[in-house]
Amino acid sequence: MLAPHLAEFVPAAALPAPCAGLLAHDGHMTSALERFHGAPVTVQVVRRRQDAAVYWREILLSLPTGRIVQYAVVGIALAHCPPPARAAILAEAEPLGRILQRLPTRLRVEPLAFLRVPLPAPLAERFSVAAGTPAHGRLVRIHHGPQCLIEGVELLAPA
After folding, report:
1. To pair with 133 at 20 to 30 A between CA atoms, which of 5, 34, 115, 117?
2. What is the CATH number of domain 4-156?
3. In sequence order, what are the residues at sequence separation of 6 or more whose Cβ sits closer than 8 angstroms to the Cβ of residue 74?
4. What pLDDT tens digit does each residue of the chain (159 aa) get?
């Protein structure tokens, strides 16, 4: 749904408020969004694909009002997930960050880069904004011990 060739890399210092606080940290986006909005988020899996090594999913996170606050595409190395986490991820019933926070070991969240992206029409429509409206996001990697468990892009709804 994104046009990667249109994304512009921006330094964390150039992220506008409140995007900077929601993106430039080493925590899970689920927690950051729930703290910021003061409400739990729910997940809607828009598309999924699974091969032998990776389970990919394109998701939307929404507030109880139905307002979409994040779009993301993530690839998850299921072989590196403990079985209860793997089952919960594949059930697609709750946000990934909430599942990962239940793991007995702390995961390392590594923001790789920050982005500004003009929203293509289908995604802009989901966010109820005009096509081309800029949105901000991050490329992220999540490590479980020495293994890279997740790679993805997380994009906030425009303010």
Report:
1. 34
2. 3.40.1410.10
3. 56, 57, 59, 96, 150, 151, 152, 153
4. 555 557 899 999 999 999 999 999 998 999 999 999 999 999 999 999 999 889 999 999 999 999 999 999 999 999 988 899 999 999 999 999 999 989 888 889 999 999 999 999 999 999 999 999 999 999 999 998 888 899 999 999 998
> Tokens for 73?
């595409």
Tell which phi-psi region holds residue 54, choosing left (phi > 0), alpha (psi between -120 and 50) or beta. Answer: beta
Report yes or no on whether pTM surpasses 0.85.
yes
Residue-range domain boundaries for the chain: 4-156
CA dist., res. 2 & res. 121, Å (int): 10
